[in-house]
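Quick one: sequence plus zinc ion SMILES, need structure tokens.
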Amino acid sequence: MKRLLFVFVVFLSLLSSSAFSQSNNQEFRVSFSKLLKASSAEFVFQPPDGFSFIGISAYCMDNTQDVTVHYRLKRMGSWTPWIAFWLFTDGDTPDRVSFEAPPVTGEFSAIQFKASKSINEEIVFRLFIPDPKIKNSANCLEAISDNPGECSCLIPDVCRKECWCSSDACSEPYEATLTESTHIIIHHSAGHNSSDDYAAVVAYYWDLHVNTNGWDDIGYNWLIDPNGVIYEGRGDGVQGAHFSCMNWETTGICMIGNYVYATPGEASLQSLRNLLAWEVCSKDLDPLGSKFHSSSELDLFIISGHLDGNNSQSDHSCAKGTVCPGDQLYKLLPEIRTDVASLACMNIDSTAFESDYISINQFLVFPNPCRGEFSISLIFKENAGHYCIEILDAIGRIIYEKRGTAYKEDMLFPFDRRDLLPGQYLVKVTTDQEIVVKAIILNR
Ligand SMILES: [Zn+2]
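Reply:
Sure thing.
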């Protein structure tokens, strides 16, 4: 009897995996009620050569069952101990229960699933298998806006969805809810402190959020890997799914990694500070301030951690007790707020000393972003007087200064500063009449 039913389960799995022809992902639909006394189902599975990790998750469309599910792997002919999935439910998809587990690394040849009890709804087990075609996210960084508007802080270059997603699925349009953020919420992903393929890690989070949790899109607006690469999630101005169902008027930034015990590295913190500077500057928010957040009904720092929403009594709140973004990242938030507030791009106004006379007709910095080679073009009116060109680093230290006298002329200043570290810099031009400032991004 057991053998017959097992064939039935495998047959279902073959049917379902054909629906994933665009990727290598596998789905196994298991009906534990049909297994009668047998509580487990086994699948032979050959991971592709050289895989960096395989994501394992599951979901069930019956959230009334108090069921625990486990998996184990056959490695070198022996089964590992059973590993329990943790259970995840969420107000955005109330009829669904999801099961998550840490990503698997290392070779294995088969996988078994078991449930703690028989239930009527089938459980869909899902294996996410990274696409080997996408490896180096740092190679496809691009600017997503060259128009900082009123704000001197530019958004750093990001790895867009087309870069980290191997199929068209991630770019499929859906009815996004737009929102004007009053608060920026910092998260950690609680996994993947190391990887040689963070683009695949982001693609896995997308797959987990969309195909396992049943959300419209990856939960976060932005993600940052330990190398400092910023990934486009839902992007700017779109309501995400990250703040315990209190997502209205928030932007979610996820630091990839688990920061309960580990401290985030400087590369990722630098990218976080630059991204936050653009977020608060472009939205006219005070990085040191706090204000009432409508959907959590809490007074929250403008830059808050996910766990700051734990005390919410709001009807929207759907989960409690998170430790996200982890102690080690959470305790850095005061310092991060101060660092962002003190960034040079946050503190320099481009203002004319005499509003009726502007001596600089045109001020260009190009190309921007660049890899260290750029030019500054200035067109002065007659009698502009003295000028001073300064290049400042992100915290306002002057790293270059040139003084001269400007006549009515076009002036071009080429620079080769490939010696500088990647990051955001400011070009500041002061004349007798005004100060003008433009931000420039130097990439790797
Ligand atoms: Zn979180």
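The pocket of zinc ion is lined by residues 187, 242, 306, 322, 324 (CB under 6 Å). Residues 2-128 form a domain with the Jelly Rolls fold (CATH 2.60.120).
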